[in-house]
Fold this sequence. Notes:
The structure holds two protein chains of two kinds.
Chain A: H1 2-5, H2 12-51, H3 58-63, H4 82-113, H5 116-131, H6 134-157, H7 166-190, H8 194-202, H9 207-218, H10 220-236, H11 239-245, H12 262-271, H13 279-308
Helix pairs in contact in A: 2-13, 4-7, 4-10, 5-7, 6-7, 6-11, 7-10, 7-11, 8-9, 10-13, 11-12, 12-13
Chain B: H1 2-49, H2 55-59, H3 72-103, H4 108-121, H5 125-137, H6 148-153, E1 165-168, E2 176-179, H7 185-209, H8 213-221, H9 226-255, H10 258-263, H11 283-292, H12 296-328
Antiparallel strand pairs in B: 1-2
Helix pairs in contact in B: 1-12, 3-7, 3-9, 3-11, 4-7, 5-7, 7-9, 8-9, 9-12, 11-12
Amino acid sequence: MKKSSTFLGHSKKEINREKIISAILFLCGVFSVLVTIGIIVSLFSETIGFFSRPEVSLLKFFTGTTWRPLASKVSPDNFGVLPLITGTLLIAFLSAIISVPLGLGSAIFLSEYASERIRDIFKPVLEILAGIPSIVYGYFAISFITPIIRKVFENWFGVEVSFFNALSASIVLGIMIIPTVASISEDALRAVPRSLREAGYSLGATRFEVITKIVVPAALSGITAAFILAFSRAVGETMAVTIAAGSTPQITLNPLKSVQTMTAFIVQVSFGDAPSGTINGQSIFAVGATLFVMTFGMNVISDLVMKKFREEYE
Amino acid sequence: MNNNHQSDFRENLKNRHTIGKWFYIILLACLLVGLLMLTALIIDLAVEGHAWIRPELFSNYHSRKPEQAGMKSAIIGSLIVMALTGLFSFPLGIGAAIYLEEYAKKNWLTNFINININNLAGVPSIVYGMLGLAVFGRMFGLFSTDSWLVKLLHLKVGEGTLSGLQFNLFGISWLEIHLPFHKSLLAGALTMTLLILPVVIISSREAIRSVPNTIREAAFGLGATKWQVVSKQVVPIAMPGIITGIILSLSRAIGETAPLIIMGAFTYVPFLPKSIWDQFTVMPIQIYNWITLPQTEFRVNLAAAGILVFLAILLTFNAIAVLLRKKLEIKW
């Protein structure tokens, strides 16, 4: 035994060094698990502190429809998180309406129609769109999109639009997420084997029919996963929605009004520098934990969809 | 009968091709929307901001007068945070990537780590801000006057703005340690490190995986130990890919605003940081601050000028990464 371990003439010192190095590398590897534990502990320890206060109640937090944490009267009635959740979902949903068709359309074009040269032009455009920081999109929303929305709705339809509104936030968020949807969908479309397309053509189908009846259905698991991931990203997005949608927590389906998302609330409180241990300092952790659970759930579902419904070829 | 069928088919085929043409046009339009928006964004920024890109923007701190306001401390702050983040994430990311690609056995633990890294990559950045605030910024209150740890060890902790524990490591005067890290550059950079770590690991792994197995086998055949193979052959060959991945992740980190706002990075920092324990601000926070101010000069013009500078710096980093990749890439 001893001989075989020193078979290539590695001294004991060398073998020990190997062991130490592999232990260090192992620690680097499991470090990411520590990060996850850290996230869970830091979010939930403060959240538990928040809910153990007499001024809030767990039931009213998830069922209450009024979110007024900064009101002078601190009572459980002022801590209902639903307006923040509906505000978040409203914006995420509207942005998905924009990003999903545009992203999928772009993906189909790039994977099925575009020549190498056209791809070389448009791929970088999508990469740049994906690389622009969200604060820049926030600026774009209030300096470019919002004025257009207000002009259109107020001059043509006579509807009042508040300066901060959910629609403007949703539009920039939609643009922001197009590259995510496009790149994951394109990967899924490209993974569909050529033979399926050729079988379609040989039966006399046109290009449109091959794409809509064969390629897209075959890639559906990847495309669905892209949609869910896009929605989850929209839910977790912060700066663009904070700037464009304002800070009015209310339950509304009217995208022309101002709403507050969960992330925007966290920023609002943090910007005011809430000291630790206070009810406001803890409330952001409760909202953050809710956000974390929501996005985590969506990411897991997207992963499962990708694995479970993947059509295997070859 | 037969003739009828044929003319039906012809008629239909024409329609089918027309539908196909419209489909093509719609798809192209989808793609053009992205290009259109990008163009609108750049024109909008240039129109509002070009006149405000002046020397003062780089040489002055934020001021109440728009004509004198600049973002010196924010530019320097962003660059320092980025350098520190790179410094921290480089060894951690490579270490984890080497472990997972070269050392890890196929078992439940490895599987779990893989799933975990993918999930971490999907966690919203604002959550990392809360992690950083609790772990680095406050250290769970372990060093506040009423914590059990302080009472147990009879530590001498400060109160107010200098709260917490301060000491010199090994008694060396410049090796100061402040616990917790509060709103320091160090706390911000560590938070950013955790934020980009999953992406750094994933891209480093890809670079390591693309090193052909023959290289490893040749080295083993010459009698090298595992670490010799990894450190002298695999990692040097994978290095261009690893570095490109890290630069791209860093340029993502520099654009992140939310985590540092949660950490409590300041908007008004009229000084340059002297050490990693100093307070700081970064470009996107300075820009956000301007956007929230009521005067048009701040809200529109200065913000646009700041964004143009910010985007120029980002573009430079990305260009460096792309050039490095092109220049150092080894094709097998």
